Amino acid sequence: MLIYFLEDDMQISYIIEKTITNAGYQQKGFLNAKDFLEALRKKTPDLVLLDVMLPDMSGLDVIKSVREFYKDLPIIMLSALGSEMDKVKALDLGADDYMTKPFGILELTSRINAQLRRYNSKIELVKGNLVINKETYKCFINEKEVSLTTKEFEILYLLMKNDEKVVTKETLFNEVWQMDVSIETRTLDMHIKSLREKIKDANFEIKTVRGVGYSL
């Protein structure tokens, strides 16, 4: 999983970087909002850590920009501003959590893990005219139910959960079949072919990334 963090204080930035890495996640740090927003448009992370006071833009304005296009992306604010009103403003604008500086490394790790668990356990996912529900294992296109096998459903759910990111074949084997790549690749190819046919009326497609995996 990839975490972006926006922090202009080099010392705090170093602490955040080490905390994320030690927690087992990939990370990329930014010193200003401009670079952060440009990177966000190119690749979507799994979680964002934002400072409030930045050199070129308020962290609160950054939240507004992020929420215009990424409604569910987890955002944790890290700020020296600790008043109740500061927290309320950030949460009302779309932050999922708010931590006051100085913060403990263990607490930051715990809050990151909690937000990622919440994000990755979403029951219902929506992309365009397609809705998929993990609780009922049902899929709908234009409100009409589409019949999927269990494996087809799990493949589609995993692709939608990682929307526009490449999901490797290894990940699909591990999470859908709970086994490594010892299973025949042809089995996965057949499931993808069938799934493409069944969701052909969706306003997106499953793309093959040759030699790597698939993406929406």
Give a structural overview.
Helix content is 44%, strand content 22%. It is of the alpha/beta class and 216 residues long. The chain folds into two domains: 2-120, Rossmann fold (3-Layer(aba) Sandwich); 124-215, Arc Repressor Mutant, subunit A. The strands form three sheets. A five-stranded parallel sheet has the order 2-1-3-4-5, with helices on both faces. Strands 6-7-8-9 form a four-stranded antiparallel sheet, covered by helices on one side. The longest helix has 16 residues, at 105-120. It is elongated and about 55 Å long. The mean pLDDT is 90.
Whole-angstrom Rg: 19 Å
- If you average the pLDDT, what whole number results? 90
The ordered H/E elements are EHEHEHEHEHEEEEHEHHEE
Largest sheet: 5 strands, parallel
Q: What is the tally of beta strands?
A: 12
Q: Please name the CATH architecture of the largest domain.
A: 3-Layer(aba) Sandwich
Classify the secondary structure makeup into a structural class: alpha/beta
User: Biggest sheet, strands in spatial order?
Assistant: 2-1-3-4-5
Specify the overall morphology. elongated
How many domain units? 2
Q: In a few lines, what is going on in this structure?
A:
With 216 residues, the chain is α/β, with parallel strands linked by helices.
Topology:
Layout: E1 2-6, H1 10-22, E2 26-30, H2 33-42, E3 47-51, H3 59-69, E4 75-79, H4 84-93, E5 97-100, H5 105-120, E6 124-127, E7 130-133, E8 138-141, E9 144-146, H6 150-161, E10 167-168, H7 169-176, H8 185-198, E11 207-209, E12 213-215
Parallel strand pairs: 1-2, 1-3, 3-4, 4-5
Antiparallel strand pairs: 6-7, 7-8, 8-9, 10-12, 11-12
Helix pairs in contact: 1-5, 6-8
